[in-house]
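Table S2 (text version). Query chain:
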Amino acid sequence: MRGRVAGVALGAVAVLGLLAYRRYGPAAGADPAGYVTAAADRGSIVASVGATGTVNPVKTVQVGTYVSGPIQALYADYNSPVTKGQRVAKIDPAPFLVKVHQAEASVANAKAQLQKDRANLALMKLLFDRNRVLLSRQLVAQNDLDTARTNYEQAVAQLAVDEAAVKQAEAALDEAQVNLGYTDILSPVDGVVVSRNVDVGQTVAASFQTPTLFLIAGDLTKMQVDTNVSESDVGQVARGQAATFTVDAYPGKPFHGSVAQVRNAPITVQNVVTYDVVIAVDNPELELKPGMTANVSIIAAEREKALRIPLRALRFRPERPAATPAAATETAAPHHAGGPSGAYVLAPDGQLRRVELKTGIRDGQHVEVLGGDLREGEQVIIGLRRDGEGATAVQRPPGFVGGRRF
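Corresponding structure-token output:
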């Protein structure tokens, strides 16, 4: 009986020891089955730049007023189609019409004065010529001739003053007529009224700042998305690149466009620098409306049938030299597309071997392999298997080896 108990105790100790060895032993993960691998294959890779933006009309015009006064009538409302030169509102013209009449009276007065002074000039010239003849006959004094000459020259000057006064009065009349014409608010473009900011009877004042009465958008079948692309990504964006975006109004429906412009003016908000990238998009069904928020993906590069490996293969790093496969983990290694990098493969003897690679573009899952000692179909390590599970890869923090911290 004592021997049976001892045997049971020894068996329990052996089982516990085996479990502890598997859990904490230095050989944990040394078996190739302890790694999660993936094959280098060929497929498509699409490198994209993500950004958010706002849907806007290509052309938007703020229609204001040059003169002040109460709104007498409105001829356009929200969503009204308008043509260039069409009257969209009317400001009460009464005070401006009075000024036109005053200016017309001033012009008539100036012309009458001009006519009067022309007659006076003719008289002064006649007297001057007569005194000159009389002086040659010694019938008048020299003083009479000088006086006549002075009166004649003053009449000539007065006629020039009157002609200038007529032009000045005519200019004032033109100004009054122009201001009267400004009481008709006209659309400067063909388009659609997006917003109306006034009502009939409301008084608008244009003394210091021109008030905006209407916001008119151009052709709404042609829209653009103004996006903010970070300075770290703007180098990948160029005119002509394809872009897709979605809006909350139509979830799951992608809209397609292309990069029309990469503007050079920086936009700095809280020390974050972005650049405005304009995406041109057709809107034949008028589904897109001004002001919608768009989630944009700009296709910076695309490869078909490229040799590729998972991005996780580049982040896998052993914590000890490659001769000790047990000491391995996944860490984030900084890397720039096109620069040197490396991945790890399992040698036939079960050891880790680093393969130097030259990488190209990348998407969220794969990276393109441009060069290096890696062939299609070769297995690269992307992580470790969780103890006791068959296919789940885990990340272990640096300093952990086989479940123990050093």
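Notes on Table S2: The two ends are 44 Å apart (CA to CA). The CA atoms of residues 23 and 248 lie 50 Å apart.
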